[in-house]
Specification:
It contains 18 helices and 15 strands. It has about 400 residues and is an alpha/beta fold. Strands 5-2-1-6-7-8 form a 6-stranded parallel β-sheet, with helices on both faces. It has a 3-stranded antiparallel β-sheet with strand order 9-10-11, covered by helices on one side. A two-stranded antiparallel sheet has the order 3-4. α1 packs across α8, α8 crosses α9 and α11 crosses α15. The longest helix has 24 residues.
């Protein structure tokens, strides 16, 4: 129902393009914010052209991260475009940009300039290396390499490998949306806006989590482990008679249940495998012993046995199998939405359900400049008076 989403009534001026920024503003839009996407006249967001594949003449890349937005064409280098941008900012709660450092200041859309005029404004900058960093573009694979992620990804004897999805862009977009919402919450208490500065490099380094802590504890950089786990065994991918299966044994009791489910009690009684530290010490032998048993059974048989035994296990799917899965369908993780020119388009859905409703699409993906005339005619709004400090 109207007004039921958490960010309903929040207005976002979106000066982003490509992936990290649009992903951030799409999350805000999915949660109810009115997001106005500012695009260059005649071309729009570069990602509209990043294909194939295309749906009609629009790249699937663009369609993935721009739902629930309105499109406004502005030439930010012209006086008229700058005036219109200033008017848009004046009626916005949030400004998001992901230009190279220094670009926003040249356009008069930097945090210092805008927040001097609009103290309640939340200004978010997303970049490769921080708003105070070098003025170079942040490309996902470059940042994956610089953050250490590629040194941790891939088989031990193989080459450093990037993740299969652009985790630098996506994580920066998620952290930016999180920071913006925290700043809006703070504004409710103080009446003051904030500056949110998110870097792709920072986001990936922050996500190193226990791998970084292992390094701090030992002084030794962790190496690539393939599909094995650095600190738990058995935990990884195992071959079956007809494919592969992921099996994740989190404690000694689960290991004993695994051995019983496989009718491999001899492994459960083996002195080398009684505790997790021992299993790590003898991981190569354990992996070999388990693989011999796994190869005798089909993936389906193994899954049934392990689920009955309460041992965590799961298949390794391709995307056609993922989106045919009943859990993925039940959780509305494939959205089918209408497009003004392209008809029905499918994209991944939002990951949260709020008040029992899945995150979905409220608006069609915008045709470039579709809402320009309407947005430029919309009236401004007055900020509430400054909140008085508590005594």
């Amino acid at each position: 129902m109207p007004g039921s989403l958490p960010l309903d009534g929040i207005h976002v001026a979106d000066f982003t393009q490509a992936l990290s920024g649009p992903y951030c503003t799409m999350l805000l839009a999915d949660l109810g914010a009115d997001v106005v996407k500012v695009e260059r006249p005649g071309r729009g967001d570069d990602s509209r052209h990043w294909g194939p594949p295309f749906v009609g003449d629009t790249a699937a890349y663009f369609l993935a991260v721009n739902r629930n937005k309105r499109s406004l064409e502005l030439d930010l280098h012209s006086p008229d475009g700058q005036q219109a941008a200033a008017a848009l900012v004046a009626k916005s709660d949030v400004v998001v940009e992901n230009w190279r450092p220094g670009t926003s200041a040249r356009l008069g859309l930097d945090a210092a300039t805008l927040r001097e005029r609009h103290p309640r404004l939340v200004h978010c900058s997303i970049s490769g290396f921080g708003s105070d960093g070098p003025p170079r573009a942040g490309y996902d694979q470059i940042v994956q390499g610089m953050s250490g992620w590629m040194s941790l990804t891939g088989e031990g004897a193989g080459e450093p490998t990037k993740a299969g999805v652009p985790v630098g862009d996506i994580s920066a977009g998620m952290f930016a949306a999180q920071g913006i919402m925290a700043a809006l919450f703070k504004r409710e208490r103080t009446g003051e806006g904030s500056v949110v500065d998110v870097a792709m490099l920072d986001s990936l380094v922050a996500m190193l989590a226990y791998q970084a802590t292992r390094f701090f504890a030992t002084g030794v950089p962790p190496l690539r482990e393939g599909n094995q786990h650095a600190t738990i065994a058995p935990y990884g991918t195992f071959p079956t008679r007809d494919g592969s299966l992921n099996v994740c044994v989190g404690n000694d009791q689960q290991f004993q249940r695994l051995c019983a489910a496989l009718n491999a009690q001899q492994l459960g009684g083996d002195s080398r495998y009684q505790t997790n530290p021992l299993r790590l010490e003898h991981r190569a032998e354990l992996t070999d012993d388990l693989s011999k048993v796994f190869r005798e059974l089909t993936s389906a048989d193994l899954l049934e046995r392990l689920e009955l035994a309460g041992v965590p296990a799961g298949p390794i799917r391709t995307l056609d199998e993922v989106f045919a899965d009943e859990d993925v369908q039940r959780r509305a993780l494939q959205l089918r939405v209408d497009h003004e020119e392209l008809g029905e388009v499918s994209v991944p859905g939002g990951p949260w359900g709020i008040a029992g409703e899945p995150g979905g699409a409220r608006l069609r993906r915008p045709v470039r400049g579709q809402h320009t005339a309407k947005i430029r005619k919309e009236p401004g709004r007055e900020d509430p008076p400054p909140r008085q400090a508590d005594p």
